[in-house]
Amino acid sequence: MKGMLFKPNIWKAKLKVLQEYRETETRRAGKALGEINQEPDSYYNPFPSYDGTWGFHYKDYMDKIVYAKPPYHEGEVVYVKEAWAEYINTSEHLASGVISLEEAKADIIYKAGMSQQEWEEIIKENGNPWVIKSTIMMPEWVARCFLRIFPVRVERLQLPLTEKSFILEGGNAAIPQLEKINNLWVWVYRLELEN
After folding, report:
1. What is this structure's pTM?
2. Residue 24 in contact with residue 16, Cβ under 8 Å?
3. Which residues contact residue 53 at a Cβ distance below 8 angstroms, ignoring those fewer than 6 apart?
4. Contact at 8 Å (CB) between 28 and 13?
5. How far is Cα 122 from Cα 45, in angstroms, rounded to an integer?
6. Counting beta carbons within 10 angstroms of the beta carbon of residue 18, is it exposed (0 to 12), middle (13 to 18) or buried (19 or more)?
7. Which of 57, 166, 168, 171 is surrounded by the most beta carbons within 10 Å?
């Protein structure tokens, strides 16, 4: 199963959206759109292909079409990679069979589940038994949230978003990230809670 990475402040906002609406959206430029986003004004009229890729017409050559494949697909379930910490040696104890998966999960904390001050107090505590782990390398067994991907689409991001998309993206928390990819082609994923 693939993981989907979110920054802590954005994930915290999306958790609130998921609690209220049971769905959220995320927009991502990604590597697959790299060639297209080198000259975003040169491409137009994207269309889905039978194999899950999307074709983009190139404006200067009517017969030139560049294809890009989104990293996630409709119907796929992904786990959320988020900021986390484990009680010292939890992963090693799980791998060696000293503790069960349920016991290991009890020894995990998530940054989005607490305030920044609470997180810093736990992490900076003298004799701290908590170890911050890599969000990018977060294994599936640590995940507390799974999301099902519904229709994937591609769009040229033009801020501001519609009111509904603004809410589903996580509101003001998402704006700095969206500003970085404004005017680029992006994958738009609608996500619903799976668990």
Report:
1. 0.86
2. no
3. 67, 68, 69
4. no
5. 50
6. buried
7. 168
